[in-house]
Amino acid sequence: MPTLPYIDKEKKTIESPHVVLVGAGASRAAFPNGDACGRKLPLVNELTDVLDLKNTIEKYGYLGNTTNFEAFYSEIFDKPQYGDLVNEIQKRVREYFEKLEIPNTVTIYDYLILSLREKDIIATFNWDPLLLKAYLRNIKVKSLPTLVFLHGN
Prior knowledge:
37% of the residues lie in helices and 10% in strands. By secondary structure, it is α/β, with parallel strands linked by helices. A three-stranded parallel beta sheet has the order 3-4-5, with no helix packed on it. A two-stranded antiparallel sheet has the order 1-2. This is SIR2-like domain-containing protein.
């Protein structure tokens, strides 16, 4: 009867696939000094400051708490009076993350991608493109694991 996980007793290896979850703080840990141009990798609750959104939020008349960015964004997302604010936030987030550049040096993301096998999965909640950029620059090196973007991308 097979065991879970599958163990190849002759090779003395575990052959089952691995799933690596990459979540909050992973990009900051991988790039503590920022991207190739020194741009900060913000944690989600730093987005209001990093994207300079305070005045914009006030301009659109939102008076609630913005400390928890995900709660704030969820609160305004479906309210018609904040439609323009939602569009502006989406634009700024997209522009900021599109500008991020991966350093020309080997990163933790490169090591992670290259240490896994084709049957493995890296699932990420992060919005930044640096994991994908590391993946693309290593795509010709070997068969890589599958990337799954849990927030969409």
